Amino acid sequence: MSQRSTAATVALYAAAALVVAVSVYPFLYALATSFKTGTALFDARLWPAEVTLRNYRQLFEGGGQPFGRHLLNSIVVATLTVVVSMLLAISASYALGRIPFRGKGALLLAILAVSMFPQVAVLSGLFELMQALGLYDRAPGLVLPYLIFTLPFTVWVLTTFMRGLPVELEEAAIMDGCGPVRIVFQVFMPLLVPALVSTGLLAFIGAWNEFLFALTFVSDTEQRTVPVSISLITGATAWEVPWGSIMAASVIVTVPLVALVLLFQQRIVSGLTAGAVKG
Amino acid sequence: MQRTRTAWLFLAPMLVAMLLVAGWPLARTLWFSVTDTNLNDLAAGRFVGWQNYFGAYGLFGNAGYTEGFWAGDWGISIANTFKFAVVSVLLETAIGLGVALLLNQEFRGRALVRTAVLVPWAIPTIVSAKMWGWMLNDQYGVVNQWLVDWGVVAQKIAFTAEPAYALWTVVAVDVWKTIPFMALLILAALQTLPRDIYEAARVDGVHPLRVFWRITLPLIRLPLMVAVVFRLLDALRVFDLIFVLTSNSSATISMSGFVRREMIDNGDLGFGSAAALSLTAIIFITAVLFLRAARVRLAEDTR
Known about the structure:
The complex is a heterodimer.
Chain A: H1 6-34, H2 54-60, H3 67-98, H4 104-116, H5 123-132, H6 143-163, H7 167-175, H8 180-209, H9 212-217, H10 226-232, H11 243-263, H12 265-277
Helix pairs in contact in A: 1-11, 2-11, 3-6, 3-8, 4-6, 6-8, 7-8, 8-12, 10-11
Chain B: H1 2-32, H2 51-54, H3 73-103, H4 110-122, H5 125-135, H6 142-149, H7 163-190, H8 195-203, H9 208-219, H10 221-236, H11 240-245, H12 255-265, H13 269-294
Helix pairs in contact in B: 1-13, 3-7, 3-10, 3-12, 4-7, 7-10, 10-13, 12-13
Keywords (chain B): Cell membrane, Membrane, Transmembrane, Transmembrane helix, Transport
Protein name (chain B): Sugar ABC transporter permease
InterPro entries (chain B): MetI-like, MetI-like_sf
């Protein structure tokens, strides 16, 4: 990896520049659009001649959709999904990662199979279940169907991680008279933090972005989550699509996510590769 | 024995949750698929046997489609889904490999490029659908503006509405969004490769392209194939991107879109469930065939 010809260097940097531009430009353009209103929207230049916050204000000013409420719904749903799947997965991964027992291989394969299942395969059954449990049309109720895609991979990643923890630690804890519950939550937990952060973030992103279940199991306007909300923003008339408001909403939904991903990118990358390649 | 009991105790909460959200609903979907259940009254469905699959208006025996199976909406949605999945996974793999090779080089600003590459992945699917819907807008979209300004086209193109372009537009947006995933997985594989082989090849003066074909590609074949399977399974169940970008028109409808339309919009829960299970079977068979052809065994370390 030492000397490189000038032509190769130029090609390398050109390729890098192209990759950066293609990756980032669409979001920058959406950001620019969100600050434009009226006829300025149709000006294709990146920097708006006049910056206005009107689109953002409109989103929260009622009238149309209660976007603030939708944002709150999404935060609640995604956070609850992370907490519930983490608790279930930590406990399960201890059994799968540390204790030998019959049927483990089959169980892990079954979990893997669930993660590959198309979600529409359970849509009608879940629809019935949500109604029977009285969770239909309630935003927090979405946590239940969301477990179908967060649990398999949190269990997989945490199991892989648990398996790698030193045996001596567990033995010492047993010698000190620790039961399994204390081993998991007091001895292993601190060591699990990096794995928990990466799987937790991926679970959060999954729940934050989910669309099919949120669209199908919630019809009440108040209870929507933000992806459904954005897909349903319409203008005053059928002919006018309020691109400014749609882009403002998109920016609000995306910025925290992009910030989180960039902040934890190292861990997300390791979570992705552990979850996918080993899974 | 004590340990085994502990294991099942620790597994129990997760297992109950999985049975509740996956096992039970799947069993119900199986039952619904052989009934004429309607969305408005789930309890009123009657058993109708194979009617939803092979009956007069069934998925695979519809006499109403005089022009053949592939002219019906179900046939169209199967064809759309496969066109979408095959083309986008091929492109994602090829471009993802390119980006991974780029990121595997040492150059100044590499960290910055890697960060930038992550951005499309971090953007929610709905948002990327809306964002590109705006950029590809037929009248005011910036892409059309460029194409006209540069003299590539004389007339602005309705990318998302025109049936000839809509599906490929969806493919393009999906490729844009998923390259990071592919690139990062491939990059992880590339970084495990032993350096001394490359040193030796360089000393022997082997052409870089030959090194790529003969050393790099065979060595990363397994992780590459696993990544491809993951993407393929994902692409075959595509729903939201197509639903939002092209309003699920029958020109671009996917299998998942078809299922949801029949179940929820048309209220035909029984027929929709039959389509959902057919879709699952199609995906399963495709995955098995692919893994056979690529000679990959998934989940080798599940001991």
